[in-house]
Design goal:
binds manganese (II) ion; about 500 residues; 15 helices; nine-stranded mixed beta sheet; manganese; binds (2S)-amino(hydroxy)ethanoic acid; Peptidase M20 dimerisation domain-containing protein; Aminopeptidase; metal-binding; about 40% helix
Amino acid sequence: MAAAPCGLLLVLLLLASKWNLRLHANRPSNVLPLLCVVLTEIATSEDSLDAIKTLRDEAVARLNQLGKTSDSKEFLERTFLSPAAIRAGKLVQEWMQDAGLSTWMDDIGNIHGRADGANASAPALLMGSHLDTVIDAGKYDGALGIVSAIAAVKMLNSNGKLRSYVRPIEIIAFCDEEGVRFQSTFLGSAAVAGVLRPDILSVRDRSGATLETSLKARSFKGTRDSLVQLRYSPESVWGYVEVHIEQGPVLEARGIPLGLVEAIAGQTRLKVRLHGAQGHAGTVPMAMRKDPMPGAAQAIVSVEKLCRESPTLARVPGGGGLVCTVGEIFSWPGASNVIPGEQVAFTIDLRATDDSLREEIVGEVEESIRSICRGRGLSCTIDKMHEAKAVGCDKDLMASLKAAAESTVLEVPGGGGVDAPAADDLVPSLMSGAGHDAMAMSHLTKIGMLFVRCKGGISHSPAESVSDDDVLASSLSLLHFLNNHLEHEQPAPI
Ligand code: HGY
Ligand code: MN
Ligand code: MN
């Protein structure tokens, strides 16, 4: 090795021993192997430890900036096509361009960044996650997958490998995964995968605005054709990779920064509306009321009881991990001295790893709600707002992501890593109870996902937190994946 880089490397490694990069909370710091992997990637461009710190600090700063790009001053809220969503899209486009990508916004609001590489017509490697958030959100859910993909591509570009990459690389910041506004989740990724609901343009938000009018209000065409043409052809895509926070406690409990997603639970979202007789709170005798509020209360408790105790659950080991949540309740006219006869509505979010079990429990839940309404003289409607089957991740893609995550976390080829504990302890495989854009993308192409440790497993909350070093690890795992893929697809010249 030439004297200069070698000397540089020595200086950096000495400096690095001071920079405590702890990836394993309960294991001695593995700073040297990690530094080696980064140095092998960037030392060739005569870069320094500063480059690594810049990479990490830039990604953290961008996550903080997105965390402040909100429609509310009190908490983080960035829902489909909101003013904050438009601002966030512009920021992401700048960062994608900074990484060497050509960018555009499509006709439903997804932000794309693409580099054609050596062969523009080769099937593209897609990466990304969602840019929208829930209400009172954390700043890593979705955003981490976008920021770390951009950071990895930026490193690839700074190593001069992006322009000659074996295939196009495209990062997509999806416009609506949470489905907060229209209740139908995956709007952005379902458009790219070509699996949008046929009636999607007529779905209404709380204000009664349809998706069509909302798109046109943002100067999008808002026509069926404009959405249909967003679909990518399967042959134009090699695969889809998404990095996302775990939104659960497993990785933290095991002191491990990265995990591999094996499968994503299926989900059903229902909207239940109960109708009774509106009236004066002070004059209608109790025996003469048709009050949907206690009806809804009884129905909600019965839903929870079924999801905890239904005998059907015994059909699948562990009850298929079935979970159920009533997250929203709404009453009209919503005045304390009015019997809310017009309507009481609530949502049901029901998930399980076993699709037939989920469908059977949904049937039991619907029957229970209907029988409670019959007993109370109420009418009810139950609308299925969204349904997604459980999806498995591609085994080969999982193996590549596992290798990339392992080399990020501990060992580098020739880097003199420490004795690795049992390999499957290093980057464990997990089930995802949370939904992700990868579910929609699985209709288009093979999918792979990496999970990143988050503090206390907390998510969908301002307490959501990822350490700076784990942000770095998520970017580097994607860089490793890209480099490994390049070597695998484009063997070194003999
Ligand atoms: O609800 C979910 O599982 C995801 O956060 N959209
Ligand atoms: Mn979420
Ligand atoms: Mn998410």
